[in-house]
Amino acid sequence: MPDALLGAYQATFTFSVAAIALLASPGPATLALAASGAAYGMQRSIEFFVGITLGLVVAMALVATGLYVVLHSFPVLATALTVISIVYIVWLAYRIGTAPPLNDEQSLVTPGWGAGFVLGAANIKAYAAFAALLGSFTLGTTPAWEQAAKAFICLLVCVVFDFLWLFAGSRMRMLFIHPTWSRRLNVSFAILMLATLAWSFTLTQ
Fold first, then answer.
1. How far apart are CA 79 and CA 104, in angstroms?
2. Which of 55, 107, 112, 165 has the fewest CB atoms nearer than 10 Å to its CB?
3. Are the C-beta atoms of residues 134 and 63 closer than 8 Å to each other?
4. How far is CA 64 from the centre of its chain?
């Protein structure tokens, strides 16, 4: 029994490390959170953060239940969903890249939970990561507990590290207020979002 328990602990640790590597690495959602934190601050970006988290829960549920595979068994539907997600992320990157310099006195229109939800649910990188994590790892426990444990770890990693991306971006807020650095950082975030989008797309091929 101790050996089995030790094996389960080791498998859980390995899975957790893999989840951090796949879900906490730069991607469209994490970079959007950093950009939102830098542009609008922590408090004004919380709804965006909550929306992304809810969207990721939906994405994970689609993968865990097999619905994502079913949807992609219909080529036209799969292509339409992919195009929608790409267009939305490109649009968001454009909004960030062309955003004007900000100052604390401006009345800002910040992205809400709805925008975050769409970004989380349309995150190509997240689907690829969830598919790899939920389908390729075994924790050595009962099937029902294993799926629940893996889903909980994935959700915990998303919440903790997405919040850290948001926090890190908020620490850069003063740079966004400066006109020159604002333009450079906005464009840099937009380019990085597009680059990670292109990389994420290759993961699904």
1. 42
2. 107
3. yes
4. 17
Q: How high does pLDDT run on average in the chain? A: 79
CB burial string 46-75: b at 16+ within 10 A, e below: bbbbbbbbbbbbebbebbbeeebeeeeeee
- Cα–Cα distance for residue pair 85/123, rounded to 1 Å: 7
* Lookup result for tokens 């929608």: 84
Q: What is the pLDDT of residues 1-21, one digit of tens each?
A: 455 555 667 878 888 898 998
Long-range contacts (CB closer than 8 Å, 24 or more residues apart) made by 178-184? 178/101, 179/101, 182/99, 182/100, 182/101, 182/102, 183/101
CA distance 56 to 122: 9
**What is residue 100's three-state secondary structure?**
coil
Q: Please tell me whether residue 109 adopts helix, strand or coil conformation.
A: coil
For the entire predicted model, the pTM comes to: 0.80
Residue 197 corresponds to which tokens in the numbers above? 């989008």
